[in-house]
Amino acid sequence: MLRRILLLIPVVLLAAAAPIQLQAAPKVVATIPPIHSLAAMVMEGQGFPQLLLSGGETPHSYSLRPSQSRMLADANIVIRVSDGLEGFLKKPLRALAGRATVIELDHVPGITTYRNRADGHDHDHDHENKRGIDPHLWLSSANAIVIIGEIARVLSEADPENTPVYTGNAARASIRLRALRMEIDRMVVPIRKRPYFVFHDAWQYFEKEFGLRGGGAIAVSPERKPGARRLVDIRTRIRASGARCVFAEPQFPPALVKTVIRGTAAKLSTLDPLGSGLTRGSGLYPVLMRNMAKGIVFCLNRN
Questions:
Q1: How far, in Å, CA of 122 to CA of 289, rounded?
Q2: Range 132-165 burial, b when 16+ CB lie within 10 A, else e
Q3: Exposure on the CB side of residue 156, measured as CA atoms within 13 A
Q4: Is residue 140 scored above 60 in pLDDT?
Q5: Are 202 and 214 within 8 A, CB to CB?
Q6: Angstrom distance (rounded) from CA 85 to CA 138
């Protein structure tokens, strides 16, 4: 009899434990590594989002593979930036209508957005209002904090039982990102007034948040190859400004940048707005932002 009772104890304990298991987190898909990282911060301890693009490719022009289409079809929540960044998702997301909540980050209340600059640097133009929104909005830590709050809100609506997990994670992540902003702000003080140029105009959110002096972009849009006249104009501006650095991106071949800096004092360096080589997860976003600041400071401090 005693032996039978002892054998039954584990079964009873398992049965008692079953009702208090937390509900599984919703299936979340984020399009690019920095946004995936912010979602992972909010979901920590409860689930892990899926990543659509690795960051090694450019989301400006992309075709979905069958496995990625299935990932979207199975999702409860899809987080993307905008039509301006992931235009290839317009049709696939229409097919998902009603089956998944889609968070369009450029439409989230409280997000700061800037218009695409006509020639890759700040000027006033008559056709300002005809230009679309610059989609690289995650490169502002203030925007990242807003994004975290929105992800927590949507997750809590989809999974109310775990609201305390999501809201607690979002609060801790926000504190972490405010500290990151102060860290980067101190880091860039010595080089704030030093000009530099970039491959394409992806950096104005970062530049404006930290008061940097980007001189312009070689390509206004990554889809449009700059003509010979523009390359000559950019080379002239690099020389005139005394810029020490022109930054390429790992998603695009550096040949154009090498052509432009030929005959100038500027050095070629690389900045990655997508974090293509970084470890996926909640730690990626702070490392991405810190790496960009370090890359700019290191290059502009040379010589």
A1: 22
A2: ebbbbbbbbbbbbbbbbbbbbbbbbebbeebeeb
A3: 15
A4: yes
A5: no
A6: 12
Topology (CATH) of 28-184: Rossmann fold (3.40.50)
Q: Is 28 helix (H, G, I), strand (E, B) or coil?
A: strand
Mean residue pLDDT of the chain comes to 87
Within this chain, domains 28-184 and 189-301 share the same CATH topology: yes
Task: State the amino acid at position 7 in one-letter form.
Answer: L
Of residues 72 and 22, more confidence is placed in 72
Residues 231-240, mean pLDDT to the nearest whole number: 93
Please tell me the least confidently modeled range out of 111-125, 146-160, 174-188, 260-274.
111-125
pLDDT over 70 (residue 234): yes
Looking from the CA of 79 toward its CB, the CA atoms found within 13 Å total 30
Phi-psi group of 281: left, alpha or beta (phi > 0 → left; psi -120 to 50 → alpha; rest → beta): left
Amino acid identity of residue 209, one-letter, is: E
> What does the pLDDT average to over 47-60?
87
Question: What torsion do the CA atoms of 214, 201, 38, 86 make, to the nearest 10 degrees?
Answer: 180
Model confidence at 222: pLDDT above 80: no
Torsion over CA: 179, 134, 267, 33 (sign): positive
Parallel, antiparallel, or unpaired for β 245-248 and 196-200? parallel
Per-domain residue ranges of the chain: 28-184, 189-301
Q: Which fold would CATH assign to domain 189-301?
A: Rossmann fold (3.40.50)
Helix (H) or strand (E) holding 215: strand 214-219
In this structure, is the dihedral angle defined by the CA atoms of residues 142, 143, 149 and 152, taken in order, positive or negative? negative
